[in-house]
Amino acid sequence: MDHQMGLKREETGVDASKELPPCCLKAMAALPESESKCINTVVTGWFSEPQSFSGESCKYFNNPMWPGEAHSLKVEKILFKGKSDYQEILVFEVLVVGGGDGGVLREISRHSSVERIDICEIDKMVIDVCEKYFPYLSLGFEDPRVSLHVGDAAKFLREASEGMYDAIIVDSSDPIGPAQELVERPFFETIARALRPGGVLCTMAESMWLHTHLIQDMLSICRATFKGSVHYAWTSVPTYPSGSIGFMICSTDGPPVDFLNPVNPIEKQDARKSQRELKFYNTEMHKAAFALPSFAKKELNKFLTPQTVKVI
Amino acid sequence: MDHQMGLKREETGVDASKELPPCCLKAMAALPESESKCINTVVTGWFSEPQSFSGESCKYFNNPMWPGEAHSLKVEKILFKGKSDYQEILVFEVLVVGGGDGGVLREISRHSSVERIDICEIDKMVIDVCEKYFPYLSLGFEDPRVSLHVGDAAKFLREASEGMYDAIIVDSSDPIGPAQELVERPFFETIARALRPGGVLCTMAESMWLHTHLIQDMLSICRATFKGSVHYAWTSVPTYPSGSIGFMICSTDGPPVDFLNPVNPIEKQDARKSQRELKFYNTEMHKAAFALPSFAKKELNKFLTPQTVKVI
Fold first, then answer.
1. Cα(B75)–Cα(B95) distance, rounded to whole angstroms?
2. DSSP SS3 for A203
């Protein structure tokens, strides 16, 4: 792979300010062929998200985001398989999907303080498929406070009134590929503009184990864009490569937001309403999510708002 | 798999007090054939810990501990392949192994308060192979405080003087298979006997995502055996199935041990000695490790010593 080591970002259409680490060079080199030929697939009853056919069309047995790694799940039965304009969709008997599945809406619905929820999903097929196969997720759409907008989120936000939102949650797919625009500076600036002073952004921000340089890029942009505060948190997700996923949490200039100590702890919400019991999230886990391993602190701290994490 | 649903533990040689959950029934049913025929293997440059040959000899493409799941890593080069009396050993260019690799010794060596370190490893081949291929781990053996004992840990501890140790760390392999004895009551009683009053046990205790019933069994035994306190903590390990591994941390009756707040924080140790910098562990991560998701709290809390986790 030596011939790829000099590959710079301008050759791949990405910011050319610094060289990419070897892991991403391999990933980028694999991109054109993987995008055209390699799809998530099921071979002899096993599903690997990062996987290609073993034939000649692909050199990599994996997703370009995670070279050299594959995670396989045994598939009992394929319920749905189709290709929308934006992505390939497979539905298994047991598997959680991201995006417009309604799961985030369902969780927002727990909060009685929320008055209005706009959701902008580009891929209507995701919504339709999830409604059929994941009704326990898509019930989030049933909340009367929800307004659905099918379309491009960047465009939607550009057209939104300035300071319109208290909080914006970005639940998109991985940043290398079609969703790349959603981790670049113009999109974050559009978000900051659409948020009120002291408004909050939460977006998925990669695994600290795999792509700290992508996290650095995102944090660096947000540090320049969000004048309130910028934080990084993570949690355990067994189905995601490396077993964990991170979140970037920022606030715009305005009333300070204490992200580590929720003003409306979920336990109080749950006590007030007879909703489905939460299986994972609680206030202790919320706070612990901000504790970072030393290597992540070392690589990310210069972009983060200082915080004190203490467990007593 | 319906015919396996009634399988009870007496049929598999395990405690018959309650029925096993479906995940482990599958695992147990696969055991005899997987132990005899299935080994970790490398197929076309990929290594799957839970994997079998795709021929007729094995029905399961995975390790019986994790039915329906496989995690694959791309292997650059096989450096060593051999079979000891106890296990098959493969060494790749990049891969962390458990057991007698010296890694735990190396970390204990950081603590100047430790006067003597006995290590009991049953498999001499692990030590030899790691010395050759993982010198940065096995350097733990070079500490003059270390005494190596090659043999069965249970026997070693039975012969130890009562109350001899301040702390015992069990770094064994998975509890289904040869190391099963190390998660059963007699072994824990032997440990408790070998510890001083207020002495500490730390042992690996499965992933909360995969085997809460095994964790419950271990905690239940330890709650009866360790009269000081019993705790469960976890951390992110990308290479382990589900991406996380748990630890059971107990103390014998005696001076109470505050597990959440280390009396000798590692940061102070590091500042005092010019050792290799820690990449993961720090006091924040130590404390955060005790925060449990709601489902784990619900299933494990009755076995645990109450604690207050607060992040400020």
1. 9
2. strand
3-class secondary-structure state, position B224: helix
B55-66 CB burial, b ≥16 within 10 A, e <16: eeebebbbbbbb
Tell whether the torsion through CA atoms of B175, B180, B184 and B187 is positive or negative: negative
Q: How confident is the model at residue A239 (pLDDT cuts 50, 70, 90)?
A: confident
The span from the first CA to the last CA of chain B, in angstroms, equals 49
Is A292 within 8 Å of B284 when comparing Cβ atoms?
A: yes
Q: Which of B209, B279, B290 sits opposite A294 (nearest CB)?
A: B279
Distance from CA of B74 to the nearest CA of A (A): 4
DSSP per-residue codes, A112-156: TT---EEEEES-HHHHHHHHHH-HHHHGGGGSTTEEEEES-HHHH
Contact between A239 and A226 under an 8 Å Cβ cutoff? The reply is no
Dist CA A299 CA A290 (whole Å): 15
Residue A280 to residue B292, Cβ atoms within 8 A: no
Put residue B106 in one of left, alpha, beta given phi > 0 → left and psi -120 to 50 → alpha: alpha
Angle between helices A212-225 and A185-194 (to 10 degrees): 40
Angstrom distance (rounded) from CA B158 to CA B241? 33
pLDDT in tens, B26-62: 444 444 333 333 334 444 455 555 433 333 333 334 4
Of residues A244, A279, A291, nearest to B294 (C-beta): A279
Q: Please state, in angstroms and rounded to a whole number, the distance separating the CA atoms of residues A230 and A259.
A: 10
Task: Report the distance separating Cα A52 and Cα A39, nearest Å.
Answer: 6
Contact present, B119 and B153 (Cβ < 8 Å): no
What amino acid is encoded at A246 in this protein?
A: G
In chain B, what is the greatest distance between 2 CA atoms, to the nearest angstrom?
61
**Is the Cβ–Cβ distance between A228 and A251 less than 8 Å?**
yes
Reply yes or no on whether A171 is catalytic.
Answer: yes
pLDDT band for B71, please (50, 70, 90 cuts): low
Give the pLDDT of residue A64. Answer: 54
Name the residue type at position B169.
I
**3-state SS track over B58-99:** CCCCCCCCCCCEEEEEECCCEEEEEECCCCEEEEECCCCCCC
Contacts of B73 in chain A (CB under 8 A): 68-70
Tell me how far apart the alpha carbons of residues B61 and B52 are, in angstroms, rounded to a whole number: 5
Residue tagged 């950081």 (tokens): B110
Token pair recorded at residue A269: 């919400």
Residue A167 tokens read as 């909080």
B278 interaction partners in chain A (CB closer than 8 Å): 294
How far apart CA A79 and CA A68 sit, in angstroms, is 29
* DSSP H or E segment with residue A36: helix A22-37
For A285, the closest chain B residue by CA position comes to: B291
- Do A159 and A48 form a contact (C-beta atoms < 8 A)? no
Cα nearest neighbour of A71 on chain B: B71
Of A70, A243, A281, the CB nearest to B242: A243
